[in-house]
Write a structure and sequence with these properties.
heterodimer, A: mainly beta, B: mainly beta, 6-stranded mixed sheet, about 45% strand
């Protein structure tokens, strides 16, 4: 069974750094893209970017380029999303997701449970 | 402002049929396939329809998708209370807006 298990909820102050994780199991982690999706409270879904753990090829949505860093450690089947300086506007639920097939960069069939990030002074 | 336009809300009574629209342009829906996701309250999104009209294994055939030109639709027949959720369309965008674009979501209420 394919599973994506995300790290737990975080409460941070503005200006702090943060790295959240998404650990995959039940599939060949290096062969599938992993994407990150933001959902602000009461709002819709926003694609942030995507990484191919096999070679760390990373693509960002224009709105998130330079705002976050996506990385992966294929030795432990884990993808990461990190911020160097959080803002209150980063408060959101963050999901990782995997496509349906190895060759797709979209059509996300498998999702993590979400990580709630709260940024407040 | 989402690149793909969906009505913010829709509603129906049990047993009825409901259709949710998703409007785009030639850079996205007009030249790429559409996926639909269902998000039940407090849960992660679930892939409902992919490649315009295909259902993943386990999705009831009450759910169907279609596309014409730069618009797509999700139809739900035999509405059930458990269908109450947010529904999002998604496509690939060939312009600078992309590459992935979502609709703003439609909240479906089962009366």
């Amino acid at each position: 069974e394919v599973q994506l298990v995300q790290s737990g909820a975080e409460v941070k102050k503005p200006g702090e750094s943060l790295k959240i994780s998404c650990k995959g199991s039940g599939h060949s982690f290096t062969n599938y893209w992993i994407a990150w999706v933001r959902q602000r409270p009461g709002k819709g879904l926003e694609w942030m970017g995507i990484i191919y753990p096999g070679d760390s090829d990373t693509r960002y949505s224009p709105s998130f380029q330079g705002q976050v860093t996506i990385s992966a450690d294929k030795s432990i089947n884990t993808a990461y999303l990190q911020w160097s300086s959080l803002k209150a506007s980063d408060t959101a639920m963050y999901y990782c997701a995997r496509p349906r097939t190895e060759w797709e960069l979209r059509t996300f069939q498998h999702w993590g449970q979400g990580t709630l990030v709260t940024v407040s002074s | 402002q989402s690149v793909l336009t969906q009505p913010p809300s829709a509603s129906g009574t049990p047993g009825q049929s409901v259709t949710i629209s998703c409007s785009g342009n030639t850079s996205n829906i007009g030249s790429n396939s559409v996926n639909w996701y269902q998000q039940l309250p407090g849960t992660a999104p679930k892939l409902l329809i992919y490649s315009d009209n295909r259902r993943p294994s386990g999705v009831p055939d009450r759910f169907s998708g279609s596309k014409s030109g730069t618009s797509a639709s999700l139809a739900i027949s035999g509405l059930q209370s458990e269908d109450e959720a947010d529904y999002y369309c998604e496509s690939w965008d060939d312009s600078l807006s992309g590459p992935w674009v979502f609709g703003g979501g439609t909240k479906l209420t089962v009366l």
